[in-house]
Write a structure and sequence with these properties.
single chain; alpha+beta; two-stranded antiparallel sheet; 3 helices; globular
């Protein structure tokens, strides 16, 4: 199967959308995306909603994603990337992959962040750290 040459230049749709990213794989190798992988950048961090195999040198592909940063819609970067710890908790992945429900994803992110905060507070004696209470990014913990 050969890739057909594009006859027109791809122009991204105007207006950003929370649950959709467009991916172009410019590499010579196929790309495997797994449901639950965290993608950082843009106006908010997101989690991939379903497993995808993206062909090498692909045309633009719409990705189904879910926001993991409730309340943020401000760009931190023009480019997207991945975290070193790039998989969301199983409960977050399940809400995105099986339930396909944005509110459930946010609820599970909140629960996961609370669990991390409680674990950190019991591991370090003393008053709770203000940074643990004010976290906004699920992926970065800040």
């Amino acid at each position: 199967m050969r890739r057909q040459p594009q006859t027109e230049v791809y122009r991204p749709p105007t207006g950003a959308q929370v649950n959709k990213l467009v991916l172009i794989n410019n590499s010579k190798r196929p790309l495997i995306l797994l449901a639950g992988e965290i993608v950082t950048g843009g106006k908010q961090d997101r989690v991939i909603g379903k497993d995808r195999l993206v062909p090498a040198e692909s045309d633009p592909i719409d990705l189904s994603v879910f926001c993991v940063e409730h309340g943020r819609w401000v760009a931190t970067s023009d480019k997207f990337g991945a975290m070193s710890l790039n998989m969301a908790a199983p409960s977050v992945r399940g809400s995105a992959m099986a339930k396909q429900n944005q509110q459930m994803v946010w609820d599970q992110v909140s629960r996961a962040k609370e669990a991390v905060s409680e674990t950190a507070e019991t591991a370090v004696p003393g008053p709770p750290s203000p940074s643990l209470r004010s976290t906004t990014s699920y992926a970065r913990g800040s």
